[in-house]
Amino acid sequence: MGLKPTESAVKSSDQIEALKLVPVSRETEARFEAYTEHLIRWQKIKNLVGPKTLSEVWTRHIADSAQLARFIDQNTKYLVDLGSGAGFPGLVLACLFADRSGFEVHLVESNGRKAAFLREVSRALELPVYVHDERIEDALDALSFRIDVLTARALAPLSELVAMYGSLPQQPRKALFLKGQDIDSELTEAAKYWNIDYEIHPSLTSESADHG
């Protein structure tokens, strides 16, 4: 698209802090700016994110999602994001890897208004994104043999996410789940039913959040 941040634009302190936490190229920053503009416009009538988080959209949503990029290697071609909502983390990762040859992001979101938002942003920013407006189970049936990385944020308890992962006939190489301060209790519960091979990485954006 050739998007570039305007030199005269005044960046909010929230945006400045987010870009310190997760530095990105000027082109990616421009995509993020366009993304947040769409989000703020749609939020007025669609309530896509918690109203109290909108003033910190860059740190609470953009940077929080973008930090997963460090775990996505060059061999990743198909990323599937479950319960995408307003696009976190899937659409943010699509913005980051928009120029990677052959890379695709599949966003699974059954809520019609949120799926419509995801499609509009994907079209406007010319992102390598496919939106699946259907139940997670149905989408996974169709996508299961193509998934390299599976992601989810604020979707379900870890035991349920692991169950979704375990149900796939060909399991992804990696699953990245953004979790909050209850991660220890969620791991204890999930371990009752699953033998889990996991790593916990401290969040770059919140001391009370982790991802594994």
Describe the structure.
There is one protein chain. This protein is an alpha/beta fold and 212 residues long. The protein has a single domain (13-211), classed as Rossmann fold. 41% of the residues lie in helices and 14% in strands. The chain has helices at residues 13-21, 26-46, 57-66, 90-96, 112-125, 136-143, 158-166, 183-190, and strands at 78-82, 104-108, 129-132, 149-153, 174-179, 201-202, 210-211. Strands 3-2-1-4-5-7-6 form a seven-stranded mixed β-sheet, with helices on both faces. α7 (158-166) links the parallel β4 (149-153) and β5 (174-179). It is globular and about 50 Å long.
Which keywords apply here?
212 residues; alpha/beta; Rossmann fold; seven-stranded mixed sheet; 8 helices; 41% helix; globular
Short description:
With 212 residues, the chain is α/β, with parallel strands linked by helices. It contains 8 helices and 7 strands. A 7-stranded mixed sheet has the order 3-2-1-4-5-7-6, with helices on both faces.
- Order of strands, main sheet, comes to 3-2-1-4-5-7-6
State the helix count.
8
**Helicity range:** 40-55%
Task: Tell me the strand percentage band.
Answer: 5-15%
The secondary-structure element order is HHHEHEHEHEHEHEE
Radius of gyration: 17 Å
Principal-axis shape equals: globular
CATH topology: Rossmann fold
Termini gap: 33 Å
Tell how many strands the DSSP assignment holds: 7
Question: What's the layout of helices and strands?
Answer:
Blueprint: H1 13-21, H2 26-46, H3 57-66, E1 78-82, H4 90-96, E2 104-108, H5 112-125, E3 129-132, H6 136-143, E4 149-153, H7 158-166, E5 174-179, H8 183-190, E6 201-202, E7 210-211
Parallel strand pairs: 1-2, 1-4, 2-3, 4-5
Antiparallel strand pairs: 5-7, 6-7
Helix pairs in contact: 1-3, 2-5, 7-8
